[in-house]
Amino acid sequence: MKDRFLRRTLTMAVAGATAATLAMSTLSVQAAQNVTLGHTLSDSSHYSVGADAFKETLERLSDGEFQVTEHPSGALGGERAMIEGLQIGTVDIVITSTGPLGNFVPETYVLDLPFLFEDYEQARCVLDGEIGEDLLAKMGDNNLVGLAWTENGFRHMTNSQRAVKTPDDAEGLKVRTMENKVHMEAFEQMGVHPTPMAFPEVFTALQQGVVDGQENPITVIVATKFWEVQDHLSLTGHVYSPAVVLGSPVLLDGLSEEQRGWFEQAADASAEATREEVSRLEKEGVEMLREKGMTVQTDLDKSPFQEAVKPAYEIYTDQYGDEMLERIRASDC
Ligand code: EAX
Question: For residue 31, what pLDDT band results from cuts at 50, 70 and 90?
């Protein structure tokens, strides 16, 4: 009798506890919505600094209603795969270069033209103004939400074979490029063999000699430890590589205006923190890469490089017109 009473009490207690746990987990699901944020670079990179700022800002503004989980190092795939993920809602926020973006939003190809921007100041000014706003809006026409322009940096060439000071030195090198036809075209004009590849595969491809070189900003060369597989760095600064904080329409279109405002502010904070980190690394990174054993070609004469890639402009304007290009050239920046 006593035993049966005890057993019943225990069973009820266990059932009660289970119900309480269930109720609590339902409550916490309602209270905090997880936001998945992906990017291709390491957790010590400028993108990760931007991811931290996004997380801190969104969680603070929403008072914990949204919790951000960062997935660095291409854990959710390369940039093209993650952009597709945004369109179907398997990832919520992505920090990406414009590398594969033109495949989705062709208007952004203009930004990938080599030697379009003189310096950081000019590039940031264009992207923060009306042109940048218009390009972000175009993402909305292509099942993506453009939240803020952020930054990767001016791209430079590295390789394992020889010091490159002129396009002639680069001729014949097999160079990994982003999956971007404007970049591929420009490199082909320079006489190198462009090999498009998603970023998460690049380190191994360099290590195994599948390609001789790659091109990326100082920020990425540092964050990915490319000095371990590349001996030579040439500060070609051949293209400014913007990055963008993109959102999934599957998540963002369902939010209230206030909630969406938090995401926009978080993206702005992310861009600001990333740009600061890019500026810092631009100052300190080259010296660090020298210390790691890379030879560095500085003060290159850029004109033969500019000359070599000129046909890429015609190929671009033949296909996409010159309206955006002229707007950028005519801007006050
Ligand atoms: O966005 O693919 C690249 O080389 C990019 O610069 C890198 O993924 C960071």
Answer: confident
Distance in angstroms (rounded) separating the CA atoms of residues 209 and 204: 8
The per-residue pLDDT for range 303-332, each reduced to its tens digit, is 999 999 999 999 999 999 999 999 999 999
Q: Which CATH architecture has domain 33-330?
A: 3-Layer(aba) Sandwich (3.40)
Task: Say if residue 70's pLDDT is above 70.
Answer: yes
Dist CA 278 CA 283 (whole Å): 9
What's the CA-to-centroid distance between 199 and ligand 1, angstroms?
Answer: 6
Handedness of CA 102, 265, 248, 274 (dihedral sign): positive
**Percentage of residues of the chain with pLDDT beyond 90:** 89
Domain ranges across the chain: 33-330
Residue 79 CA to ligand 1 centre (angstroms): 8
Amino acid identity for residue 194 in this structure: P
Q: Which residue has the tokens 């600064």?
A: 237
Please state, in angstroms and rounded to a whole number, the distance separating the CA atoms of residues 237 and 302.
9
Rounded mean pLDDT of 249-272? 98
325 CA from centroid of ligand 1 (Å): 23
Q: For atom 5 of ligand 1, which residue has the closest CA?
A: 97
For the chain, the farthest-separated pair of C-alpha atoms sits apart, in whole angstroms, at 97
Instruction: Give the burial class of 40: count Cβ atoms within 10 A of its Cβ; 0-12 exposed, 13-18 middle, 19 or more buried.
Output: buried
Distance, CA of 198 to CA of 252 (rounded, Å): 27
Report the pLDDT averaged over residues 199-224.
98
The answer on pLDDT for 25 being more than 50 is no
Range list of β-strands (E), 100-169: 145-159
